[in-house]
Protein: 3-oxoacyl-ACP reductase
Organism: Roseiterribacter gracilis
Amino acid sequence: MPEPKKGAVVITGAAGDLGSHLVSKYAEDGFTVIAADIEPVAKRERVVPLVVDITDREAVFALAARAADQAGGLVSWINSAGIFVPTDIAEADEANWHRTIAVNLTGTFFGCAAAFEVMRNEGGGRIVNLGAVAGRRGGLDVHPAWAASKEGVHALTRVYAAAGAPHGILVNAVAPGLIESQATQLFADEDRERLTESHPLKRLAHIEEVAAAVRFLTSPEASYVNGTILTVDGGANVGH
């Protein structure tokens, strides 16, 4: 299997738990990593931090143009940015609906569109979106916009996979269950305990386990994987 081309990898949500882990791993692999987030990311070897609001279409397309100018061009784009609002469904508000859809779904759309434009001109590449198991079967204790936005991400993934294939652009998504992260720390302790105890493995996913699935989808071994929503939930979805 040939070594992957060492160009630029764009990671949105680069200041988050999953995003920062991916930034480190791709930098260690020798890629130039453009670490994009609305929060500042520390500059270090092979990491180019950029403050970007992914709900700003022009800013996202400018990000893609900058990645294309890197040595080796844009090889992978990972839409990792997202927000997560725990709430009782009876208290789900309109403001968080609009905010969640804007970041999780519209931001992913802008990322896919910007990466697609560059990769089509460069002869191919990989796009990986972050979906969620909740996008397939819903979820309790979180704003309904979470599941709605993530099912939208899954649909976007399939649309861009079909459009990208003739241009050598492979588009896939990873759909994790709940991850041990700052986001799930927002749950009340009793809710976290209940979610953990009801899981077949009696634990939530680790960041490293989800990151490994993302990295697989950008690897040479995934050269025939396209339009897939890769579930990483430890079997919680079995039977649903």
In short: Residues 8-232 form a domain with the Rossmann fold fold (CATH 3.40.50.720). The longest strand covers residues 169-176.
